[in-house]
Amino acid sequence: MELTLLFADWLGKPAWMWLGFLGIVLALLIFDLGVLHRENREIEVRESLLLSSVYVSLGLAFGGFIWWQLGPESGMNYLTGFVVEKTLALDNVFVIALIFSFFAVPRIYQHRVLFWGILGVIVLRAIMIGVGATLVSQFSWVLYVFAAFLIITGVKMLWIGDKEPELAGNPIISFLRQRLNVTEGHHGQAFFVEKQDPLTGRLRWFVTPLFLALVMVELADIVFAVDSVPAIFTITTDPFIVYTSNIFAILGLRALYFALAAMIHRFKYLKPALAIVLVFIGSKIFVADLLGLEKFPAALSLGITFAIIAAGVFWSLVKTRDDTHPA
Which of 10, 56, 156, 159 is the 20 to 30 A CA-CA neighbour of 268? Predict the structure, then answer.
């Protein structure tokens, strides 16, 4: 009976594949919080790069498993999705750094916000991907809507350029400050503290700026998911590949953040490259129709996507090689 359940179909794949993936994610989260960062401390750039390389290696290794288990096309679709999602996650670092700067979050507590933020991402992406998979399975034309949205988003990103989001007058932050009791400063790593109300003298619960930073990080991911979820669905509609490539790309974001935050200015041309990738991914479905193809070749899609992103990273490093401080 137990073996039958393990091989039972769940969203197009046997249950043991989903359980194995979720087991890996759970083990990584426990190892991260319970072993590597059991005590609050600052994460140095060298440690950040090392941990990030481990997460990237695990993500690629899982792609190798998919290639072996499900075939070359599924493997290439996973790798394409992983590369795109990883690049979108890198773009997310720019916004997270801005949020931490706005709320003056000490570096020693930033990992705590990122850890709980990642847990929220895992749940939110599961919900959004589940909804997306249902829509695509019921209404195939939704893929064309996703594709058109990606093209528009990519063009908009190219048009806006490096314009940063404005947090000082953000209506969500204003709303939270008006509706919640917020402390003036940070209270260590606490999201909530109990203290005397200055007006009544009674003990009341207050939220800290660290909690507001967590809320904004979660909201930022929702905004980025609006781009990333349609992007991966135009690459593949397989829920297993969609979700696993998303989560493996995001899992290493915490580790990579502390290295990238110190050299964000070196990736000046990453966003334009990402915009071009979104336009390319969105246009694939229309190109395939024009050429009379069932779908755009997975190998060609992976090659073009990787080439665009690699060119953006290379050109950024070349053009900013003499820069020592962010512009």
Answer: 56
Please give the structure tokens belonging to residue 21. Answer: 């993936």
DSSP class per residue in 101-138: HHTT--HHHHHHHHHHHHHHHHHHHHHHHHHHHHHHHH
Q: Collect contacts of 24-30 with beta carbons under 8 A, ≥24 apart.
A: 24/58, 24/62, 25/122, 25/247, 25/251, 28/55, 28/58, 28/251, 29/115, 29/118, 29/119
302-326 tens-digit pLDDT: 889 889 988 988 888 888 776 655 4
| 188: phi then psi, degrees, rounded to nearest 5 | 65, -135
**Euclidean distance between CA atoms 77 and 232, whole angstroms:** 9
Confirm if 268 and 107 have CB atoms less than 8 A apart. no
| Distance between CA atoms of residues 314 and 324, nearest Å | 17
C-alpha 142/C-alpha 147 separation (Å) is 9
How many CB atoms sit inside 10 A of residue 154's CB? Answer: 23
Give Cβ neighbours of residue 162 (< 8 Å, ≥ 6 apart): 268, 271
Contact 104, 213 (CB under 8 A): no
Q: Residue 182 in contact with residue 307, Cβ under 8 Å? A: no
Position of tokens 């990238």?
A: 260
